[in-house]
Amino acid sequence: MSKKAIKKIKRIFLSKKESCIISITVRSLTGEIQKGSDLCHLFIITTEKGETMQKHRKFIGDKRFYLMVLGVAMPIMIQNGITNFVSLLDNIMVGQVGTEQMSGVAIVNQLLFIYNLCIFGGVSGAGIFTAQYFGQGNDEGVRNTFRFKLWIGVILTATAIAIFLGAHEPLIRLYLTGDQGSQDMNATLSYGVSYMKVMLVGLPPFLFVQLYASTLRECGETMLPMKAGITAVFVNLVFNYILIYGKFGAPQLGVVGAAAATVLSRYVEMAIVLIRTHGNKEKYRFTKHLYRTIRVPAALTKQILIKGTPLMLNETLWAGGVAILMQCYSVRGLNVVAAMNISNTISNLFNVVFIALGDSVAIIVGQLLGAGKMEEAKDTDTKLITFSVLLCIVIGALMALVAPLFPRLYNTTEEVRHMAAIFIVEVAMFMPVNAFLHASYFTLRSGGKTIITFLFDSVFIWVASVPVAFCLSRFTGLSIYAIYFMVMSVDLIKCVIGFVLVKKGVWLQNIVAE
Fold first, then answer.
1. Structure pTM?
2. What is the reported pLDDT for 5?
3. Residue pLDDT, tens place only, 135-165
4. What single string gives the DSSP state of each residue in 303-354?
């Protein structure tokens, strides 16, 4: 066969339909592929290339795909990144005051974390429907889901304030059972109580920011919550400096000043989000007649409760599980609480990457499911999970590099700094694992599989992680570093479960189809 003919055939094989060619006609050349011929060899090579390219396309998107993903993820990433960066600075400022102050604040924040995730779970249950109603163009559906969020948020916030006001001291004492080391346990308790009482004033604005920001994001608007969040964190940063250290004539309030600055920033953020959202009713159509009634249709309420209750319970139990894990670690001493506070502070900053990409899965895939585009949703989800895991391998490596340096920013003992550095490296090692788990969780949730996410997330932490941490911390002589690593390793089992569930496509459903 001439070289000219082979070139013509090769162009055909390398076209979009190369894997479908069985027989060919190129101008005057007609024939079938014969075994052992040059053409047969060429067919095998080009088909293999085509199959390899198809496999790559399954996991890797094109430029337009990643621009679309970053368009959704970057505002969330920037907002969360700035928020966590300022929280980091806030934490360092408190840490500069003393180790007892830092430990007291860390314990209270761990308890408030349970409330935060209760709110997140409460609004997320309705948020599944919000994203799909928005994909349908159903504004009244979006309004009704917002009203449901309002009801559940008010109930949860009132309950949390009552519990924390009535039982704040016993709750904080749960973390003060281990070896005191160089810390004063009574001072840690006192600082924690003072900090919590002020922080409770900030729960209502936190609720309303979550109500509006979650709805805006589910409707594809991520810029406004990001701008409000950025403004708030800078307000927090400035007033932290003024009130913690007593600058510009203000009183030196220490941990109380840190709490007051946080509360002030939350009211600023709430004002920005509410004023901007209601001031542009043409763009944010769900705000029209939003408060004309707070009734939610009974049928929708039932749907959301069926889908959303497992999600809310999941977030609550998961946060409770995390709090219990910290309590198990605290058995090994108050220095462990201080070191984990330092580790968690820097981890939260790096974690914004996979958290934002998880939110992107919920938004992008949820809208595709609501529009009935099942195959596109599955393809998009695969690429999003791959992107998140690969990116977090790099992010984890960067985090490990800063591990020896970051703890030195704190005014604490050398033992606490050393502990914190090791914890940071261990967390960095598991960042790709956490990225996969987070994306898998939001994949399952986007299709309304909240019972599965409940089992996948909170049930797992209570039946696997918590028992392992409890037994290892109390009944073995293992170091705290080994215990921490082994507890995180348990999540590898969850990775296998998540992979199977996502691959089977159990989440591919439109839950708002009329």
1. 0.70
2. 55
3. 777 778 888 888 888 898 999 999 999 999 8
4. HHHHHHHHHHHHHHHHHHHHHHHHHHHHTT-HHHHHHHHHHHHHHHHHTHHH
- Tell me what pLDDT residue 286 has: 79
CA distance 496 to 447: 20
Q: Mind spelling out the 3-state secondary structure of 406-445?
A: HHHHCCCCHHHHHHHHHHHHHHHHCHHHHHHHHHHHHHHH
Name the 3-class secondary structure at 177.
coil
The CB density around residue 513, as the number of other CB atoms within 10 Å, is 10
Distance, CA of 6 to CA of 2 (rounded, Å): 6
- Token pair 């220095």 in the structure block, residue: 335
Flag residues of the chain having pLDDT under 50: 9, 12-33, 35, 43, 53, 514
**Predicted confidence (pLDDT) per residue in 322-368, tens digit:** 889 988 998 888 888 889 989 988 888 888 888 888 888 888 888 78
| 55 in Cβ contact with 350 (< 8 Å) | no
What integer pLDDT is reported at residue 11 of this predicted model?
A: 52
The DSSP code for 34 is: P
C-alpha closest to that of 316 among 151, 168, 119: 119
Smallest Cα–Cα separation from 499: which of 451, 436, 435?
Answer: 436
**Sign (positive/negative) of CA torsion 375, 377, 378, 379?**
positive
pLDDT value, residue 8: 52
**Where are the extended beta strands (E) located within 15-56?**
23-26, 29-32
Assess contact for 355 and 435: CB atoms under 8 A.
no
8 Å CB contact between 115 and 160: yes
Sequence-distant (6+) residues with CB within 8 A of 366 are: 128, 131, 132, 135, 218, 446
| Cα 391 to Cα 13: distance, rounded to the nearest angstrom | 34
pLDDT at 2: 57
Phi, psi of 2 (to 5 degrees): -70, 155
For residues 270 and 274, give the distance between their C-alpha atoms in angstroms, rounded to a whole number. 6
